[in-house]
Amino acid sequence: MTLWSEWWVWGVAAIALAVGEVILPTFVLLGFAIGAAVVALLLLVGGPLAVWLGGSIPALLLVFAVISLISWLGLRQWLGVYRGQVKTFDRDINDD
């Protein structure tokens, strides 16, 4: 069993990424933190999926990437820029 297959490694990575999100608020690190937390939870709870994930680093990284992408897209939809929120200008200051 490799170090990447341990649930606490993914838990520590999730916490580190969440702390990084506080320092750099872009919602990207929060998506990665959610992905790492889900992988940690899957490995901690166990079950057939965790057994399949536990022995394969590519499978762990695939689940991490898919969950991170889904969570990032969800965060952008929920907390992102809304239509009409961005101010646009009709004329440039240099047009005179």
Structure commentary:
With 96 residues, this protein is mostly helical. It has one domain. Helices cover 68% and strands 0% of the residues. The protein is built from 4 helices and no strands. It has helices at 7-23, 28-45, 48-54, 57-79. Helix 1 (7-23) packs antiparallel against helix 2 (28-45), helix 2 crosses helix 3 (48-54) and helix 2 packs across helix 4. The longest helix is centred in the C-terminal third of the chain and has 23 residues, at 57-79. The protein is elongated.
Distance N to C terminus: 69 Å
Weakly predicted, low-confidence segments: none
Computed CA radius of gyration, to the nearest angstrom? 19 Å
Tally of extended strands?
Answer: 0
How many domains, as an integer?
1
- Sheet of most strands: none
Shape: elongated
Global mean pLDDT: 82
The portion of residues forming beta strands comes to under 5%
Specify the number of helices.
4
Helix content percent band? 55-70%
Q: What structural class do helix, strand and pairing data support?
A: mainly alpha
The string of secondary-structure elements, in order, is HHHH
Protein name: NfeD-like C-terminal domain-containing protein
Transmembrane segments: 7-24, 29-51, 57-75
Keywords: Membrane, Transmembrane, Transmembrane helix
Organism: [Roseibacterium] beibuensis
